[in-house]
């Protein structure tokens, strides 16, 4: 959940926690077990809240700590747990620690909590390294001394408003362990760790390789990061109901990825390989197999998702000639077939929901919302847009406020009609209210899918049928992904034409409303998923 865009209760155009409380019925009827909140902390919002000024305070735009505590409790009473987002790699440049560091002398303890370094060159005019930011551009910004002269440089692997913390400093480690306890003590069931592989840096500041997959990369996947997560796991395990730790880990090497999932570290890590793959049977089949192989012998749970608050929405991406995703290739003016994209997104949702493990859904995907690609430039706030010189559209297009009703200036998002980003007029038909009345809608599909998934998991546990042990199934068409769990067969046709349907007893669920007509002809339509009882 991206709170800013979920629902606005006070009418200022920004989503807030009271808005979430007002729509708990929607989340309960959808069938979710937990809500992962992107950062709701006090923040200048230079990067959508991922620039945290105070980990123990709710940003006033969203509410206050008492409201957060009430939300955690009321959601829990409905069987919905809360996962909060911790951002350990960096803080806001408005954070008290960084403000104290700017006011302190070089070599001070205040500066030692960050990465302050003198510059290169005769007068220190060059940055300490030529490392490239994850948002594009340099990773170092020079400070100005009290007398007005140029001072030291500080490191930020994201934007200058997000100075990196130095995890070699004991105060940094102690502070974050206390932040974990702060939220766990208030009922949070777990945390999601932002940029989990980036915390530890090579203090010698060597040259960074061009490819981020280098095992000796100076600020990615350093061995020392695992000591941090072992300490965090000890904190999580202090509680009678142990808390969850799930990490954002972008790594191509499965062996190094698996190190984060050892029994004394994280409980899970997001599967970006699956999330970014194209609509292609061979590519998806391979990444599913790899993911399951990576988790073989681990107690950690595989995770599956189609998108998040950073990626192009699947209803748009799957309609493109190149339906994969990478930040480097994201550009304005990329054509898409919206009808095809939505059909594939619905089919992909059923594929992800069938796989063993944890399923994550980004708000709005249950409505089949497309990416909003025609936002006025002056309204875009994402630093990826600004730091690329306007070449990268940024991530604002997947963060447009949700439509709740088919009428009104902001489609029910706000009681005053205000919205921090404008919604397309055609979203009226995609609103929660409109889709709830339509049995063929994407929302209705998600509700049936999640309810059936839960029932079949229970059935599998109790009787060895339903969604029991996972296995690959056979199908003669290479464009079909066939999976089996117990007596339930899953098929996804990623080809361009209908394909043969095997014998079965019953159709439990189909991603397209007209699938039953095809099934009577014993064929599976293109861009369609089905769950069959055999």
UniProtKB/TrEMBL annotation:
Gene Ontology MF terms: hydrolase activity
Highest taxon in the source lineage: Bacteria
A Pfam family reported for this protein in Swiss-Prot or TrEMBL: Alpha-amylase
Glycoprotein as UniProt keyword: no
Keywords: Hydrolase
Residues of the Glycosyl hydrolase family 13 catalytic domain: 1-399
Family: Belongs to the glycosyl hydrolase 13 family.
Annotated protein name in UniProt: Glycoside hydrolase family 13 protein
Species name: Agromyces larvae
């Amino acid at each position: 959940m991206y709170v800013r865009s979920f629902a606005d209760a006070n009418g200022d155009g920004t989503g807030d926690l009271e808005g979430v409380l007002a729509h708990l019925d929607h989340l309960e009827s959808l069938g979710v077990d937990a809500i992962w909140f992107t950062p709701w902390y006090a923040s200048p919002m230079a990067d959508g809240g991922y620039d945290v000024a105070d980990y123990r305070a709710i940003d006033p735009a969203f509410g206050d700590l008492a409201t957060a505590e009430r939300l955690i409790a009321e959601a829990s009473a409905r069987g919905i747990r809360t996962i909060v987002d911790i951002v350990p790699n960096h803080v806001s440049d408005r954070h008290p620690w960084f403000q104290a560091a700017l006011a302190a002398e070089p070599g001070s303890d205040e500066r030692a909590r960050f990465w302050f370094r003198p510059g290169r060159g005769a007068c220190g005019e060059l940055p300490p390294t030529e490392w490239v930011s994850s948002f594009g551009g340099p990773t170092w910004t020079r400070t100005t001394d009290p007398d007005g002269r140029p001072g030291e440089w500080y490191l930020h692997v994201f934007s200058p408003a997000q100075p990196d913390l130095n995890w070699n400093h004991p105060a940094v480690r102690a502070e974050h362990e206390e932040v974990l306890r702060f939220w766990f003590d208030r009922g949070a069931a777990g945390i999601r760790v932002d940029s989990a592989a980036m915390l530890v840096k090579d203090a010698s500041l060597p040259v960074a390789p061009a490819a981020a997959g280098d095992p000796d990369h100076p600020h990615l996947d350093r061995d020392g990061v695992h000591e941090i997560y072992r300490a965090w796991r000890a904190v999580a395990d202090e509680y009678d109901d142990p808390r969850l730790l799930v990490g954002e880990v972008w790594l191509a090497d499965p062996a190094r990825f698996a190190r984060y999932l050892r029994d004394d570290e994280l409980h899970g890590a997001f599967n970006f390989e699956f999330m970014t793959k194209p609509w292609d049977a061979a590519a998806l089949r391979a990444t599913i197999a790899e993911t399951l192989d990576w988790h073989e012998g681990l107690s950690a749970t595989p995770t599956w998702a189609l998108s998040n608050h950073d990626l192009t929405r699947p209803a748009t991406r799957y309609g493109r000639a190149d339906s994969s995703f990478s930040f480097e290739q994201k550009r304005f003016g990329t054509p898409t077939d919206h009808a095809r994209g939505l059909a594939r997104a619905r089919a992909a949702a059923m594929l992800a929901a069938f796989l063993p493990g944890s399923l994550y859904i980004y708000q709005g995907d249950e409505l089949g919302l497309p990416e909003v690609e025609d936002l006025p430039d002056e309204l875009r706030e994402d630093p990826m847009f600004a730091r690329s010189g306007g070449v990268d559209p940024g991530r604002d297009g997947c963060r447009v406020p949700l439509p709740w009703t088919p009428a009104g200036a902001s489609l029910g998002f706000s009681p005053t009609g205000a919205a921090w980003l404008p919604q397309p007029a055609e979203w009226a038909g995609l609103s929660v209210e409109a889709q709830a009345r339509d049995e063929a809608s994407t929302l209705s599909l998600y509700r049936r899918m999640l309810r059936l998934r839960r029932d079949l998991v229970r059935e599998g546990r109790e009787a060895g049928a339903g969604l029991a042990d996972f296995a690959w199934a056979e199908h003669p068409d290479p464009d079909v992904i066939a999976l089996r769990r117990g007596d339930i067969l899953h098929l996804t046709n990623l080809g361009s034409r209908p394909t043969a349907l095997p014998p079965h007893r019953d159709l439990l669920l189909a991603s397209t409303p007209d699938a039953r007509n095809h099934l009577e002809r014993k064929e599976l339509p293109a861009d369609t998923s089905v769950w069959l009882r055999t």
